[in-house]
């Protein structure tokens, strides 16, 4: 059996840079070895448990290095930016990194690989496939973990209010939020903290037929000031002013989750991976009988939270693809979901392993989102943080009841400036 190296404790960046590999500029991993960079995650632990079978099948040693997610991003930027491609395969966050990696040409084109017989690329949900495809139509990553927006609601409070089921559209959502609001319980919680709110606001933007860019093109002109976007801002601000909790402007996912867990709100829209937390007696006052799960009444995003990529400069792309193919196979997808990972393959959501872990209502919500969700929940640019800050300021203005049109114009101008700068920097036409 060949040697394996597992480095699974988060390490300082300097140490991580030393462990990534021993090649020089443009070198790559040594012959007979594959360097894989990951972050601590259930996905990673599942790979670790079964990696011997891959090594034996392919006669290769996998050097698996684990750093925290921010360190993975930093290391790859330093390594690849210097022309070193010692890391062959990496687990990364497409929402944070794919735009920069794509613009710099660091991602291997996987288009021919994913069409191999038996891999079944079509088994990945359509939004996940779109999110993994570059502007030029190349497949540049393979999603392993996904996330959608889900409505969590109090079944008992709905029954007391005479509401027969979850709201089906935005009009009902607003009506239900008002009907459920009382002196002790607020009707709904959504993110209100500026940059954080963008992720939740996205689905309301799409439900109003808006987008971040004209025609939904990643580097199309900014569209934050469009009539559709302004209408979405008005709705988002109004429902939170009238039926949301106090202090919503400081509310991220953590604060909103706590509000729902403690029984202070009747409805909460947040990422679907939060579902186990609401009936966990160690952190929540709610029971399984009280909590319901339903599709968001808005137009949910479906985003790849975790994906595998291969370095365009890897010296062994074929064995790197063999690793990605194994790690993202139907069998591995089902195994990961048996541990709670919300995966990207449709077949895994129909597997017995999934049914043993996820409530039937949750599975139905995931499948509905995977069918027609929007594959992004924020602007798709390198400086996404700055874009979210600008748009988040407009969201905060809407919640406060300020001049929404003026706030949207200001956010649009800032976003357009970011788009123009990146188009110039990366030669994007």
SSE diagram, text form:
Layout: E1 5-7, H1 13-19, E2 33-38, H2 42-58, E3 61-66, H3 69-81, E4 89-92, H4 94-103, H5 111-114, H6 126-131, E5 142-154, H7 155-160, H8 170-180, E6 186-189, H9 194-207, H10 227-243, H11 253-261, E7 265-271, E8 291-295, E9 302-310, H12 317-327, H13 330-337, H14 352-355, H15 360-372, H16 384-400, H17 404-426
Parallel strand pairs: 1-3, 2-3, 2-4, 6-7
Antiparallel strand pairs: 4-9, 5-7, 5-8, 5-9
Helix pairs in contact: 9-10, 9-16, 10-16, 16-17
Give a description of the structure:
It is a single chain. With 429 residues, the chain is of the alpha/beta class. Helix content is 44%, strand content 13%. The chain has two domains: 5-146 and 303-372, D-Maltodextrin-Binding Protein, domain 2 (3-Layer(aba) Sandwich); 147-302 and 377-426, Periplasmic binding protein-like II (D-Maltodextrin-Binding Protein, domain 2), CATH 3.40.190.10. The protein has helices at residues 13-19, 42-58, 69-81, 94-103, 111-114, 126-131, 155-160, 170-180, 194-207, 227-243, 253-261, 317-327, 330-337, 352-355, 360-372, 384-400, 404-426, and strands at 5-7, 33-38, 61-66, 89-92, 142-154, 186-189, 265-271, 291-295, 302-310. It is globular. Mean pLDDT is 93; it is low at 1-25. This is ABC transporter substrate-binding protein. Keywords: Signal. Residues 1-20 form the signal peptide.
């Amino acid at each position: 059996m060949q040697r394996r190296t597992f480095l699974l404790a988060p390490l300082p960046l300097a140490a991580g840079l030393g462990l990534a590999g021993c090649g020089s500029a443009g070198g790559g991993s040594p012959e007979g070895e594959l360097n894989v960079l990951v972050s601590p995650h259930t996905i990673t632990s599942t790979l670790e448990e079964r990696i011997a079978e891959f090594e034996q099948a392919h006669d290769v040693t996998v050097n698996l290095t684990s750093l925290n997610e921010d360190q993975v991003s930093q290391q790859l930027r330093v390594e690849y930016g210097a022309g070193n491609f010692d890391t062959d395969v990496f687990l990364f966050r497409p929402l944070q990194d794919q735009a920069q990696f794509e613009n710099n040409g660091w991602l291997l084109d996987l288009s021919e690989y994913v069409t191999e017989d038996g891999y079944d690329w079509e088994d990945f949900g359509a939004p996940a496939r779109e999110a993994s495809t570059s502007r030029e139509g190349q497949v540049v990553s393979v999603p392993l973990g996904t996330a959608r927006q889900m409505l969590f609601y109090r079944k008992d409070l709905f029954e007391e209010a005479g509401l027969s089921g979850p709201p089906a559209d935005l009009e009902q959502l607003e009506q239900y939020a008002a009907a459920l609001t009382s002196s002790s319980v607020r009707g709904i919680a959504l993110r209100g903290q500026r940059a954080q709110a963008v992720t939740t606001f996205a689905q309301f933007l799409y439900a109003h037929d808006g987008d971040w860019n004209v025609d939904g093109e990643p580097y199309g002109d900014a569209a934050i000031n469009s009539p559709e976007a302004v209408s979405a801002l008005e709705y988002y601000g109004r429902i939170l002013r009238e039926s949301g909790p106090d202090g919503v402007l400081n509310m991220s996912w953590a604060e909103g989750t706590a509000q729902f867990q403690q029984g202070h709100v009747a409805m909460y829209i947040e990422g679907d991976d939060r579902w186990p937390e609401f009936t966990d007696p160690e952190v929540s006052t709610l029971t399984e009988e009280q909590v319901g799960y339903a599709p968001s009444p808005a137009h949910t995003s479906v985003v790849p939270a975790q994906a595998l990529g291969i370095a365009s400069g890897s010296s062994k792309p074929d064995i790197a693809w063999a690793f990605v193919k194994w790690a993202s196979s139907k069998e591995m997808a089902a195994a990961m979901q048996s541990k709670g990972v919300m995966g990207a393959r449709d077949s895994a959501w129909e597997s017995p392993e999934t049914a043993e872990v996820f409530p039937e209502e949750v599975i139905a919500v995931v499948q509905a989102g995977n069918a027609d969700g929007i594959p992004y929940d924020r602007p798709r640019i390198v400086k996404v943080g700055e874009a979210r800050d600008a748009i988040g300021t407009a969201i905060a203005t809407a919640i406060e009841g300020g001049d929404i049109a003026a706030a949207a114009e200001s956010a649009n101008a800032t976003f357009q400036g970011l788009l123009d700068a990146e188009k110039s920097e990366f030669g994007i036409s």
